[in-house]
Write a structure and sequence with these properties.
Layout: E1 2-3, H1 6-20, H2 25-35, H3 40-49, H4 53-60, E2 63-64, E3 73-77, H5 78-89, E4 93-96, E5 102-104, H6 118-130, E6 136-142, H7 148-161, E7 166-171, H8 174-179, E8 184-186, H9 190-195, E9 199-200, H10 202-210, E10 215-218
Parallel strand pairs: 1-10, 2-9, 3-6, 3-8, 4-10, 6-7, 8-9
Antiparallel strand pairs: 4-5
Length: 219
């Protein structure tokens, strides 16, 4: 389900206009937020969903279809993908961004906690991977986040049960591995996308195919 917040469109247009002319992102967002009296959640929507036309176009060129996974090695930005799918299942707002990627706006990464919905999200992600036939999959979770090792163990067990080659690891800085990974990367993290040759928006495919209850906002 796509929700169109008309009252945010003008703010998004103005923010996009400023970014396209090289104005600093942080200052521009503050200016637009104050001008339209936007709430924190509304500002988060703009921050995660609106980019300069140049940046949006450059990232769109890097996003491959899910069919690109067949027969290749894939590294998954674990918390990025998992939290996005969980947000869809819990009906937390998701933004369909200018660059074509779907992002969670909750900012839960550092305070993430496993909940009853976590295993369902993992199952949906793994099921989508099974149908995509990658050669090998590695999930990378941030070890500083509480219980990342246990979560990695659960995902590894799920991969083995599904006969998918691969594993999950808890590592201190997943971004370093992801940016140097020789295969494809699954993420919607802008900094990682800007640093790699190609990505797959795995969370988006899971949500669009298997989470019809997701609250998806388009600006």
């Amino acid at each position: 389900m796509v929700i169109d917040f008309g009252f945010l469109r003008k703010g998004a247009e103005d923010f996009r206009h400023l970014l396209g002319r090289g104005y600093p992102r942080k200052n521009s967002l503050e200016l637009i937020g104050n001008r339209y009296s936007l709430t924190k959640e509304q500002r988060d929507l703009l921050h995660r969903g609106v980019f300069s036309p140049e940046d949006a176009a450059a990232r769109r060129e890097k996003v491959l279809s899910i069919e690109a996974l067949e027969g290749v090695a894939l590294a998954v930005d674990g918390y990025n993908v998992l939290i996005t799918v969980e947000a869809g299942l819990c009906r937390r707002p998701l933004i369909l961004a200018d660059d074509g990627l779907i992002r969670d706006i909750s900012g839960l990464s550092s305070g993430y906690r496993v909940t009853s919905i976590t295993h369902k999200a993992i199952d949906l992600i793994v099921e989508r991977l099974i149908s995509s036939h990658p050669k090998r999959v590695v999930f990378l979770f941030d070890s500083p986040i509480s219980k990342s090792g246990r979560l990695a163990s659960w995902v590894t067990d799920r991969l083995r049960a599904s006969r998918l080659a691969g594993e999950a690891q808890a590592v201190r800085v997943p971004e370093t591995i992801l940016m140097g990974y020789p295969g494809l990367v699954a993420t919607s993290d802008s900094a990682i996308i800007d640093g790699v040759k190609a990505v797959v928006d795995l969370a988006a495919h899971v949500i669009q195919d298997r989470v019809p209850e997701a609250q998806l906002i388009a600006l």
